[in-house]
Amino acid sequence: MAIRNIAKKIRKKLQKGFTLVEIMVTIAIVGLLAALIFVGAQSALSNGRDSRRQGELSQVKKSLQAYYLANGNQYPLAAEAISLEEDNDANGPFAQAMKGGGYLPIIPRDPKHNVEADYSYKYIATTTAYYTLCAKSESKGGYLCVSGETGVALEDDAPAFGSWGGGSEEEVVVSVVPQISAGGNHTCFVKSNGTVWCWGNNSSGELGINNTTQQLTPVQVLGAGGSGYLTGVSQIMPAGHWSYRTCAVKSDSTVWCWGDNSNGQLGINNTTQQLTPVQVLGAGGSGYLTGVSQVVAGHNHLCALKSDGTVWCWGSNNYGQLGINNTTQQNVPVQVLGAGGSGYLTGVSQVTSGWKYTCALKTDGTVLCWGVNDKGQLGINNTTQQLTPVQVLGAGGSGYLTGVSQIMSGAGHICTLKTDGTVWCWGGNYYGQLGINNTTNQLVPVQTFFP
User: Fold this and answer.
1) What are the strands of the beta sheet with 301-306, ordered from one edge?
2) What are residue 196's DSSP bridge partners?
């Protein structure tokens, strides 16, 4: 209405003629109206562009979170880097990420988390203690990076930076879910700040609070010798569904355990129970175990995967679950031998342990197992225990199982996820845990039925 009235006045003046002052005022009004229209249009365009960009960034956030979930709830350690570079560029890691090359696609172990295949990733080790992980989109022509301490989960609401879709560098939020894990009768939780909180049964000191009193609410795990608190933890493992101990991997890739030690399962060269965290020793009891990326536990034994792809185990060994070609208990870590006892097992990407047996997934997608085999849990078409790793056979006992991306063990059965999204299991099936519509134990992998 206001614009229409102004137009009428302008028409009358055109008929009568304008004074100089009126002409100047009219020009100013017209200019103001044009400016308002221009600003409104630009704002609408900007809002639309920002909305699209935030949607795209949200997808990258999900993709980075998928990487985190698919890799044991942590971003990679330096030795597991996709592409290592020294950050000597004055422009920093973000500029390095834009240089091209070095990006490799990541296939999440769980297909549900494969948010968008367009994304590829680049890992940059800025120092031995800090990393930058970048997601790059070929179609969007941009990148998003997140930085943090090696092996440590990001703080909640940690910022990620990048230039997306040709826009200027901006910030989004990447939320990381802290880790929780449960043992037989106790639970432990790693907060995003690297501290550990446990609750439940504490009869063997498995809560790490320098006593054996049951706790009905979370209590913070103490530091070594009961001094201060345990910090810098990236992974927690309450050490098996049948045990009374807990172990943690710290951001410096060392391992700390506490609780029951009756079979040397704390790896400290004795069998004395520990009520606070103690550091696991190195081979032969010399120095300390380092370079660890994952720890798993069976009944009374533990195994650690090192970032170099080797596996080290300690504790009870009455069924050969340590994979060292004998049944002698080991109070410090020993390196798992290769197939048939030849050399050492290498090229491992994930380990899992059940009741007195252990399995390893190799980077080539094959699986090897060792230890007790009374239910066929080693997947080799017999029930003979194995003191060194043996390769799991394929369906029907033909060839070998291949294309595996993830492996997980129960008490006496194993299930694997293959890269094609199928699930294959073997071993004990007395409760139907293999998902094959019967309760017959299986000595070789069988495919799980899905509706």
Assistant:
1) 292-297, 301-306, 311-315, 330-335
2) 190
Distance between alpha carbon 367 and the CA centroid of its chain, in Å?
A: 20
Give φ, ψ of 426 to 5 degrees: -160, 165
Structure token pair of residue 274: 């520990």
Instruction: Supply 244's token pair.
Output: 């009374």
Helix H or strand E encompassing 21? helix 20-70
Could you write out the DSSP letters of every residue in 210-274? SS---EEEEEEPB-GGG-SB---EEEEE---TT-SEEEEEETTS-EEEEE--TTSTT-SSS---E
Query: 268 with 312, same domain?
Result: no
Domain of 426? 291-451
Domains: count for the chain: 3
Which tops the pLDDT comparison, 206 or 182? 206
Most confident of 105-109, 129-133, 357-361: 357-361
Q: What is the pLDDT of residues 154-166, one digit of tens each?
A: 444 445 555 444 4
What average pLDDT does the segment 22-37 reach?
A: 63
Mean pLDDT, the chain, as a whole number?
A: 74
Residue 301, both tokens: 């034994």
CA dist 173 and 179 (Å) reads: 19
> Are residue 361 and residue 237 in the same domain, yes or no?
no
Please return the burial class of 227, using the count of CB atoms within 10 Å of its CB with bins 0-12, 13-18 and 19+: exposed
For residues 332 and 380, what is the distance between their CA atoms, to the nearest angstrom? 29
Is the confidence at residue 321, as pLDDT, over 80?
A: yes
Of 278, 204, 276, the residue nearest 243 (C-alpha): 204
Residue count of the chain? 451
> CA distances (Å), 85 to each of 138, 150, 221, 262, in order?
21, 15, 36, 45
Q: Answer whether residue 223 is part of any domain.
A: yes
Q: Is 114 in contact with 123 (CB distance < 8 Å)? A: no
Token pair listed for 399:
């060839």
Strand pairing category for 413-418 and 404-409:
antiparallel
Cα distance between residue 343 and residue 326, in whole Å = 15
Helix (H, G, I), strand (E, B) or coil at 53: helix
Task: Determine what percent of the chain is predicted with pLDDT higher than 70.
Answer: 59
